[in-house]
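Hello again,

I reread your note about wanting to compare the complex against the isolated chains. To keep things tidy I'm splitting this into two emails, and this first one only covers the full assembly. Below are the input lines as submitted, including protein chains and any nucleic acid or small-molecule components. They are followed by the predicted structure of everything together. The single-chain runs will come separately.
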Amino acid sequence: MLFQDVFSKWPMILHGVWLTIALSFVAIALGLVLATAMTALRSLAGSWAGYVVDAYVELMRNTPFLVQLFMIFFGLPQIGIRLNGLEASMLAMTLNLAAYATEIIRAGVDSIHKSQIEAGLALAMTKWQVLKHVVLQPAFARVWPALSSQFVLMMLASSICSFVSVQELSGTAAIIEQDTFRSFETYIVVTVLYLVLALSFKLFLNWLGRKLFPQVSGLARLTEAHGEAA
Amino acid sequence: MQTFGWPEALFILRSAGWTLALTAIAFFIGSILGGAFAIMRLSRVRWLRRFAAGYILVIQSIPVLMVLFMSYYGLSALGIELPPFLAASASLSIYVSAYLAEIWRGSIESVPRQQWEASASLAHTTAQTYRHVILPQAIRISLPPTVGFLVQLVKNTSIVQVVGFVDLMRAGMLVNNATYQAFQIFTLVGAIYFAICFPLSRLSRHLEKVMNASRSH
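Full-complex prediction:
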């Protein structure tokens, strides 16, 4: 096995890693905003908005990411919207993640008891204040673990973007393989890098969850400890 | 230039059969492997437990695409040439095994500990405990997430087109290369995936409701 051929391409590999991280972060940030908006729309606006959001979520969750990506990359130009591989990937990842995140956040919002909202309103909080402090924050805190694993899955799924010739990590692998003919070594190196990325992502998201929701994670630890003792 | 018409649509529809076949094979082999890993993960032998945990962690932390590349391009570089269908089934089975192992481990663990104790007090062996006491309950608990995972599997079979295997996705791409009517073609391809996945999603949700109802009594 000759790993040095692969390692000699390290600037390319590094760029691939960077692009995978960048794509994932953009998709996570935009996807979360979109998902929050859709969840709010679903609960605040009339029922027709709810149906539209539900239909969107079901459509995205029950079709492959690759089909969605191809629809955007190959299908949209037909109606005059031309995106390059990177833009198409970003859009597809954002739309896909938004659907999954909506479903997860909805579960969190549903777990907020109605009396909490009534209590918030009784304290003369505005509708928006209640939405932010009483509904969304605790809801996010509760579903953060589920969201985190969805984020990691999205990062792994970004490998599919190499099909529209985006030079993220797995796209880089294909090019290095063609240059060096060391396919086994190339894929071993790239797979190990994905492993490292996924594990660091998990650790980072856990840390972020503790930072963002300190009270709740403290509470969770308490109940966990209590549960073990019982 | 060829246009997208009935023959092309029928070709795509027929290729959906290969997607279903691949799903069935990957699910069958993956569930045997996954069951073994789930039980190893709960074994009393420490190295078995660690081996299974490591396997699950690694497979869940790398893209399925990499498993596929390794078993197709990687192995062929080492002189082992797998035909596309075999490489696709093998890598999807590995993917399925890791996720099912984790789902089923959770299901087995959620059977109350007293059931194990009761079974032990009846002088059951470990195998008998699993066979007569734990698995019948664990399988019920595991049904909704397992069916839910099946949806993920159907969707993930779409990536095997990269090794040249003609499944639903590949058929769509072939027709697209000939006709350039991507919008219509991928709408059809997406609709077929949806027709397979949506009923499964609903079934998973329905099972979840049924199971919760029986447990809340």
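For quick reference: The interface with chain B takes residues 58-59, 61-68, 70-71, 74-79, 152, 156-157, 159-160, 162-163, 170, 173, 177, 181-184, 187-188, 190-191, 194-195, 198-199 of chain A (CB under 8 Å).

B.
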